[in-house]
Amino acid sequence: MVLVFCLSCLLFLFLWRQTVGRKKLPPGPTPLPFIGNILQVDAKDIGKSFTNFSKVYGPVFTVYLGTKPAVVLHGYEAVKEALIDHGEAFSGRGHFPVAERINKGLGIAFSNGNTWKEIRRFTLMTLRNFGMGKRSIEERVQEEARCLVEELRKTEASSCDPTFILSCAPCNVICSIIFHSRSDYKDEHFLKLMEKVHLNVNAFSSPWMQIYNNFPALIDYFPATLKEVFDNAAFIKSYVLEKVKEHQESLDVNNPRDFIDCFLIKMEQEKNHQQSEFTFEALVATVFDLFGAGTETTSTTLRYALLLLLKHPEVTAKVQEEIDHVIGRHRSPCMQDRSHMPYTDAVIHEVQRYLDLVPTDLPHAVTCDIKFRNYLIPKGTTVLPFLTSVLHDSKEFSNPEIFDPGHFLDESGNFKKSDYFMPFSAGKRTCVGEGLARMELFLFLTSILQNFNLKSLVDPKDLDITLVAKGFTSVPPLYQLCFVPV
């Protein structure tokens, strides 16, 4: 009887605290004790559940993924108002316990406060000023595009799964920027590194990862289930640390070669600052984040782009016609070409919109108590900007569920910008590698279509372009094609 009484009191206290806390937050579905709204959310397609909630509770609502509330922003107006109009207040990073265990609050993606501001500012400045009078980032991407074309030629027009090759290219670009070197597509160390990055990105997209992040106590109770994730992270970090030590031995402060050199020079400049954010641990964590964010996101988008082009050969033909007219067959594409290629630019934007790579964005958090649309959101509350609701808004895109490059073209065939285009998030937490990703997508895709015709193994009408999953990230289906030299 005493046990039942105590449990009843605990349950009553929990429900009372939850009810009091919910009064000031936006409305939402009634949560169950301890598990919240988990049973009402489809882990394989969270967005579908959020859309259904928005029809009942409006564009700003609260869900409990576990015991803690998360405020969901649905639709362009709500997302813009929060991330852009109140950018500073919504610039925090929400809890992601597994990532926090790996990076310990360091790096770019999952850090907060001054750590995030200092490292982000440095990374953006370094990427923008990269080259120091030598090869620019564009030249590095162009070089990798030529290597990619040569690897595709080796397939000799036979059928292949493009996943592996399309992962190598952006990974090599990141290696070039960070380590001042690229690797052959068959180099064993390079392949091992790429495999570890790939496995962890996929693991972070699994429904199980959502459960661990919403119930972090499970990480301690069932550590074996995450052993592979932590082991992969440890391998990547040890690889990076080895490269850092090599750079220390050959560093020339007057001639920085890459991102690591620039970071080491910054560390030396701030060695007397006790609160400096520039440490060995921060360097390793930052490089770790750059690998994860800069490899799989671009390769996944490229892979889905080729599938959509197979499905729509008429679109492919128009892009190749524009390539022939603007670039020709005898020189490599460059970024200056993009302004003269509105249709190709529109196709790439439409691929990103249609793919909707990160449906709910990485979790944000408010950095202070804020009154938002007559609701009081306490400091530290998790905020989920539902990017799908922006990229698939029927008010901006006439047929949001259909792949149509016309969504980014005006009546005269000129490229048409859209404020609703937010594949990289928006505001102060927008992806630090957005410029690099745009460059890679344009140069890699135009280089491929300049040199090859894409041949499907089945009738294009029978190709299935349905995404396999839409959890933390969208996952395209596997497929095969032939790269037939032009």
Please characterize this protein's 3D structure.
The chain has 486 residues and is α+β, with helices and mostly antiparallel strands. The chain is built from 17 helices and 12 strands. The strands form 4 sheets. Strands 1-2-8-5-3 form a 5-stranded mixed beta sheet. It is globular, with a radius of gyration of 24 Å.
Percent range for β-strand residues: 5-15%
N-to-C order of helices and strands: HHEEHEHHHEHHHHHHHHHEEEEHHEEEE
- Kindly report the spatial arrangement of strands forming the biggest sheet: 1-2-8-5-3
Structural category: alpha+beta
State the major sheet. Answer: 5 strands, mixed
Radius of gyration over all CA atoms, rounded: 24 Å
| Annotation, overall tally of beta strands | 12
Spans of at least 5 consecutive residues whose pLDDT stays below 50 are 12-20
Q: Shape from CA axes?
A: globular
Distance between the termini: 81 Å
The number of helical elements comes to 17
Report mean pLDDT, rounded to a whole number.
Answer: 90
Helical content, roughly?
A: 40-55%
Write the layout of secondary structure elements.
Blueprint: H1 2-22, H2 46-57, E1 60-64, E2 69-74, H3 76-85, E3 92-93, H4 97-103, H5 113-128, H6 137-153, E4 159-160, H7 163-179, H8 188-204, H9 207-214, H10 217-221, H11 227-250, H12 259-269, H13 280-311, H14 313-326, H15 342-355, E5 364-365, E6 370-372, E7 375-377, E8 382-386, H16 388-391, H17 434-451, E9 452-456, E10 469-470, E11 474-475, E12 481-485
Parallel strand pairs: 2-8
Antiparallel strand pairs: 1-2, 3-5, 4-12, 5-8, 6-7, 9-12, 10-11
Helix pairs in contact: 6-7, 6-17, 7-13, 8-11, 8-13, 11-13, 13-15, 13-17
